[in-house]
Write a structure and sequence with these properties.
Layout: H1 2-24, H2 28-33, H3 41-50
Length: 51
């Protein structure tokens, strides 16, 4: 059970980092098209990784 917990935490962190990586390459206009501002990228990535 403990191993599964750590593996899920690692998977969540990897998803978090990947989302930040992808969104950081968007222009401000592209971010606006998807309804985000540059200041919201980290918060959105954090929420996305938990789902």
């Amino acid at each position: 059970m403990l191993v599964a917990f750590f593996l899920s935490r690692i998977a969540n962190y990897r998803q978090y980092r990947r989302t930040i990586f992808e969104l950081s390459h968007f222009s401000d206009r592209e971010l606006d098209d998807v309804g985000l501002s540059r200041s919201q990228v980290y918060n959105f990535s954090h929420k996305n990784a938990r789902d």
